[in-house]
Amino acid sequence: MIAVIGLVVGVVAGLWLQPTVPIELQPYLPIAVVAALDALFGGLRAMLDGIFDDRVFLTSFLSNVVVAALIVFLGDQLGVGQQLSTAVVVVLGIRIFSNAASIRRHLFKA
Amino acid sequence: MTDEPTSDAPLPTTADPVNGAVHDAAPHPLDEPLTAQVWHPDDAAPAADETADDADETAPDADQAADDQVGADETQPASVADGDGAPRTGADASDEAGADAPGDMPATGGAEPGTAQQRPDEGDDVAVGAAWDGEEASAASEGPAGTSSDPARGADGTGHGDSDAEAEERDEPDDLSPVQPAEAATGAAAGADESGVAHEPPDADDAGDPDEPALAEADEPVDVDGPSDVDGPSDADGPGILDEPSDAGPPVPADEPVPAASSVGGWTALGQALRPRLTTAQLLAGVLCAVLGFALVVQVQHHGDTSLEGMRQADLVRMLDETTDRGDALARQESNLTSERDELLSGSDRRQAALDALRRTATTQGILTGRLPAEGPGVIITLTEPDGAIRPLTMLDVLEELRNAGAEAIQLNGHRITASSAFTGVAGAVVLDGATLKAPFTWIAIGEPDAIAPALQIPGGAMAAVRTDGGEGSIARQSHVEVSAVRVVPDPVYATPVPVATR
User: Fold this and answer.
1) In a 3-state reduction of DSSP, which class is residue B409?
2) Where is the composition biased (Low complexity) (chain B) (predicted)?
3) Which of A67, A77, A6 is nearest to A38 (CA)?
């Protein structure tokens, strides 16, 4: 419940403050958001599986964001930024779908 | 149902039993309520099994004996016995044993039976392997509440000799067994709490802890002990047991709800998870979710207004190429349009010039041919015939003299002189282009007046010829004369223009 409250608080803060994204971070912010979403879904699935560990959730959240941003940055340096960005988004999307399917099976038994 | 005794110290040490008997034998495993742990020593298990079996066998007999005794003791037992008999008839051995348990449920204290009754329900829910019929058990337990114990005991007492001894043993274990359920009930912080309430303590106790260990612990014992546990609590020793220390309380409740949650389904787990608890894990998750929500909103807002500053180099290069190509195409189009415009303008100018030239030519030709009236400086010559008639030949001389002097438009008595004009007739009746003229003759000629007048008056000129004919002439130089007479010349019939050689 506190997580949901935190999410709402973050959304409200973003709408209220309306900050401008620094130029350097602009290409990486969407990738980081998708990686964080993947970690969130993973945590939710772990909670329903009964194997939720807060430390694992924290590390997975941070590592997902950092690794995704690093991969995109590396791709930009190498010259394949667009392709690597697409690959990262595809993989994260697959993981999100897998976690969502597991959650669905837990909740709806189907 | 063979139990896997997970011995717990507290139970054997408790010297509480109402009977005061020492329970060296572990409480009947069947006596235990839904507690996950079987805290009885190993000895208790086989004895418990035997007693359970005996209880099953003697159940029908006990019922009948109970009826006999019930009539003597109480009126309720009869109904109780019936109630017990009814579910038992259709139940298996294990079911009967289970039915016995509720029948045997101690009628002591209100909370005790209540909790004891609840336990069968819990046991029904939790016990996976047992064929426990919860409905029967609950029905049996509800009916005979408080009174079943008497017939049961009576049954035990009147049953087989073995059953007596074993029943006593069962009683004793029953005494002990309710302890844990009682403790569990107390641990659940309420005497008559539902099974659902039992879930509370584990949550509170295990807040933040991983559910897995509790799950692992709870699954095995619960599955095995479920049915036996249900049988256990039915004991008249409830109240005494309730007083027992709740050593076994915390672990028991901790184990109970966990298996129930997993078995109930994801929604329960989700509901439990969503319950707000002030733990590090929850706070951490809240903080991370706040960051996620913040970044999500920022990104969504930012994506609406994309600028060149945040784009990648490859994208910028591509955009530059596209823009350059478009610029070149536009430049080419501009040059094409400019040349076309110039061409159009010049073409119209040429046309206009041609038109102007044609107009001028037409005007000139019209004046010269007599089609158009003209005006300008010239002379007016007046010829009279005072002494004779002027011959046509003389008129022709005058005309030739005028033309020789540069007259451009000549008019005689209102008749235009053209290139095809001719004087015919005789003196006195000069005919010009079919029209007879009479004196005085008025010549109007447009030209240089100073050139025409002297030309006419040269010795031996036209005027001399007129004087010779007996006429008189006067020449008046005018700065502006008007030749208004026109003569439309018919188109040539025989003559055709020579084709103009194209350059």
Assistant:
1) strand
2) 129-149, 182-192
3) A67
Q: Best mutation site among B298, B309, B317, B318 for testing chain A: the one with the most A CBs within 10 Å?
A: B298
Measure the CA–CA gap between B387 and B410, rounded to whole angstroms: 26
Distance CA B271, CA B280 (A): 19
Residue B402's identity, in one-letter code, is L
List the single range of A83-92, B137-146, B453-462, B468-477 with lowest mean pLDDT: B137-146
Residue A68 lies in a domain: yes
Residue A58, domain extent: 24-108
Side chain identity, residue B206: D
Asked if the C-beta of A78 comes within 8 angstroms of chain B's C-beta atoms, the answer is: no
B334-341 contacts, C-beta under 8 A, 24 or more apart: none
Report how many domains make up chain A: 1
d(CA B292, CA A93): 16
ipTM of the complex: 0.88
Reply yes or no: is the peptide bond before residue B151 cis, omega within 30 of 0.
no
Residues with Cβ within 8 Å of B339's Cβ and at least 6 positions away in sequence, in order, are: none
Burial (CB < 10 A; 0-12, 13-18, 19+), residue B119, is buried
d(CA B322, CA B404): 80
DSSP letters for B414-445: TEEE-TT--EEEETTEEEETTEEE-SSEEEEE
Residue where the block lists tokens 């019209």: B366
Query: Nearest 5 degrees, angle CA B429-CA B430-CA B436?
Result: 80
**Residue A84 to residue A100: CA distance in whole angstroms:** 24
DSSP string, B310-378: GS-HHHHHHHHHHHHHHHHHHHHHHHHHHHHHHHHHHHHHHHHHHHHHHHHHHHHHHHHHTSS-EEEEE
C-alpha to C-alpha distance for B57 and B41, rounded to whole angstroms: 25
pLDDT tens track for B32-43: 555 555 555 555
Question: What does the alpha-carbon distance between residue B17 and residue B168 come to, in Å, rounded to a whole number?
Answer: 12
Element (H, E) at B383: strand B374-384
CB-CB under 8 Å, B309 with A23:
yes
Q: How many percent of chain B have pLDDT more than 70?
A: 46
Q: Let me know the angle formed at the C-alpha of B486 by B482 and B487, rounded to the nearest 5 degrees.
A: 150
> Which amino acid is residue B27, in one-letter code?
P
Instruction: Give A61-76 pLDDT, tens digit per residue.
Output: 999 999 999 999 999 8
What residues in A contact B316, CB-CB < 8 Å?
Answer: none
Does A57 reside within a domain?
yes
